[in-house]
Amino acid sequence: MKITTRACALALVIAVSGCAGQQMNTRSVQSSEQGGDVAMVPITAELVAGEQRPLQRLPSELASYRPETYRISPGDTILVTVWDHPELTTPAGNQQQAVINGRLVQPDGTFFYPYAGKINVKGMSIEELRSTLSSRLAQYIRDPKVDVNVVGYGSRIALQGAFVDTSPQDITTVPLTLSQAIGKARINVEQADLSGLVLTRDGRDYKLDLDALNRNGKIAQDIYLKPGDHLYLPFNDRKEVYVIGEVLRPQAINFKTTDMSLTQALGRTGGLNPITSKGSAVYVIRGVEEMKNTPATVYHLNAKSPVAFALADRFSLRPGDVVWVGPAGVTRWNRFLSQLLPLSGLISNAASAEYNFGRPD
Q1: Would you call 119 exposed, middle or buried from its count of C-beta atoms within 10 A (0-12, 13-18, 19+)?
Q2: Is the C or the N end of the chain the one with fewer CB within 10 Å?
Q3: Are 310 and 274 in a shared domain?
């Protein structure tokens, strides 16, 4: 019967085309969307050896910087002690905190002290200010014994991004290092991208990969911070790889380090499905987001080979990569049947309708 024949043919085309769409040819694939070839590249020892990234080194200007003697800046609070003269040392009273008895350096860098007058102290060291005060007070006090301390600081560094505490941190008389600042701010370990820290100094951005700088048991040289430095630690919400296909838990995976190996990505999804997956059909699709401008690259791994585990561990994924694991032959056949069998009822009904339509009343 013509209706039955056409229905069967249609069912076969739909089912087979669905199964064929679940496989990738290991040869170059023609992309109708962009009109170019999608390169199919096998993952080999030579490939992973060539993709090893060199260790990051600190920029020389950051590594060599050493803080000078502390220089007074606007916003500092200076406590001056003149021994045997409490009226000058603690005008607010002995019971008050030191900062209350201190004197603020004004935005223009000037500082006022009784009998010494108004002094431009911006850029002075503590010892230089002590000497200046002693010289001026000597005109009114015989052999003054003067001590100077900074009890409040106006110089700070700013923090932004995936830190638990982004409050500004003071630059004090004790030099502040990058590791100390990060330790005090505390990294949000679930959301931070450790490979993307940016230190902005004097209008220049320095990207510091904290993960790469402290790999293989090595601890990177510490960096001294200076007033006005800005630290930005990005979030990892846009740094994802996507694992789909015949794995136990298909999902998008964030990673907070420099990179993620193919083995790590498959491991986080529970690995290949032992029943439905095809070990020789593991693919990494790279460049999906830029396919309109640049052909994508598809990397192929034959996971049936024991060597494949070593290769997968050394193959680094990049943000935006799509890992796809193809189905085994029996899985494709079962899916073929699952798509075909629901149509058998339609075919049977169509045949019955034609038979009944052709019978005489």
Answers
A1: middle
A2: C
A3: yes
Residue 249 falls inside a structural domain: no
Residue type, 273: N
Two tokens, residue 313: 């561990």
**Is the Cα torsion angle 12, 18, 24, 30 positive or negative in sign?**
positive
The domain in which residue 125 lies consists of 77-152
- pLDDT per 10-residue tile (average), the chain, 361 residues: 39 36 45 55 85 73 90 92 81 58 90 90 93 92 90 93 95 93 93 91 92 74 92 90 91 85 91 87 82 78 82 88 83 54 51 52 53
108 token code pair: 């223009």
Q: Count other Cβ atoms within 10 Å, centred on residue 303.
A: 21
Residue 4 to residue 17: CA distance in whole angstroms: 20
Same structural domain for residues 269 and 301? Answer: yes
Residues 165 and 147 reside in one and the same domain: no
Number of C-alpha atoms within 13 angstroms, CB side, residue 62? 21
Alpha-carbon gap, residue 187 to 161, rounded angstroms:
9
Burial of residue 325, with CB atoms counted within 10 A of its CB: 0-12 exposed, 13-18 middle, 19 or more buried: buried
Burial group, residue 194, by CB count within 10 angstroms (0-12, 13-18, 19+): buried
- Cα–Cα distance measured from residue 38 to residue 290, given in angstroms and rounded to the nearest whole number: 12
Q: Quote the pTM value.
A: 0.69
| CA 288, 289, 295, 297 torsion-angle sign | negative
- Does residue 34 lie within any of the structural domains? yes
